[in-house]
Design brief:
about 300 residues; alpha+beta; Alpha-Beta Plaits; 8-stranded mixed β-sheet; two-stranded antiparallel ribbon; 9 helices; globular; Adenylyl/Guanylyl_Cyclase_3/4; Nucleotide_cyclase; Adenylyl cyclase; A/G_cyclase
């Protein structure tokens, strides 16, 4: 796993003058300068990954470079708001940690809404419109644009170490490996979480008496859904807990099975609920309930 480093532009353009310059974006500098102290002890790990990034890089390198810069800027801005810590990036993937479970979930909820409301390059929008038309039902992205899958897990890392090159603290152990595998179980626009994370979220909220009802007892489908959605209180129709895919699964390289719950971003409003602005081919989400979700970022 490589340390965080300035992004390397695609080699596709033949003319040196046409290639994007190699520079760290201002949001990255801001994020690194103002990021909180690296958490210690039990932590909440978040891994993110852009869906189909390899195929998009092959087909539209210039547009993907533009989209990646936008994606990274949005990620780091929201990370600052949620007081998370950027461990490193791996290509288009982020490894993040949070000192509390609620901040991690808030980050993922807000980022999924933000990404769906972003004006992506037209060629990337067209690419995902094709997937909306031809993909299997469970594989369809929720909107035409750059889509991201996320995974959250809570636990105690075996150890942490300061990377002398990136000057960022990195985390090691089975807890980190499990977090990365969980992210791989999500589809575009989804957040995959473990029972360990949901339990920590429940304990955190019960301690502060923030749960609206008694949700004690062994975790079951009803309790999982109420804890996750009640924590963020998203407007009706924005997210759903996917009842048919919660399962105990043996993930590659892990001895113990993991019980995973997926939270899905529901497909945004249809065309007659949207309005067009400017020359962008990506419609601005205009329904009142979706705007409420966007307002949660503030």
């Amino acid at each position: 796993m490589t340390p965080t480093a300035p992004l390397t532009p695609p080699s596709h353009p033949s003319s040196p003058s046409s290639r994007p310059s190699i520079s760290r974006c201002s949001s990255c500098n801001q994020s690194m300068h103002h990021s909180p102290v690296a958490p210690t002890g039990p932590i909440t790990c978040v891994f993110t990954d852009i869906i189909d990034s390899t195929s998009i890089w092959e087909a539209y390198p210039e547009e993907m470079w533009e989209a990646l810069q936008t994606h990274n800027k949005l990620m780091r801005e929201e990370l600052l708001r949620c007081k998370g810590y950027e461990v490193k990036t791996m290509g288009d993937a982020f490894h993040l940690v949070f000192s509390d479970a609620e901040s991690a979930l808030r980050f993922c909820f807000h980022m999924q809404v933000t990404l769906s409301d972003t004006a992506w390059p037209p060629s990337i929008v067209a690419y995902h419109k094709g997937k909306l038309r031809f993909d299997e039902m469970d594989q369809k992205p929720p909107y035409p644009g750059l889509t991201v899958r996320m995974g959250i897990h809570f636990g105690q890392p075996y150890g942490e170490e300061l990377n002398p090159v990136s000057e960022r603290v990195d985390y090691y152990g089975s807890m980190v490996n499990r977090s990365a595998r969980v992210q791989g179980e999500a589809q575009g626009g989804e957040i995959a979480v473990t029972d360990e994370f949901i339990e920590q979220l429940r304990q955190y909220r019960m301690k502060d008496k923030q749960l609206k009802e008694d949700l004690t007892g062994p975790l079951n489908d009803v309790i999982r859904e109420k804890i996750l959605l009640e924590t963020m209180e998203p407007p009706v129709g924005v997210f759903e807990v996917k009842q048919d895919v919660k399962r105990s699964k043996k993930l590659k390289g892990l001895e113990k099975p993991v019980y995973i719950t997926r939270i899905g971003l529901i497909k945004p409003p249809q065309k007659d609920e949207l309005c067009e602005t400017g020359s962008s081919e990506y419609p601005v989400l205009a329904s009142s309930w979706w705007q409420r979700a966007l307002n949660q970022r503030n």
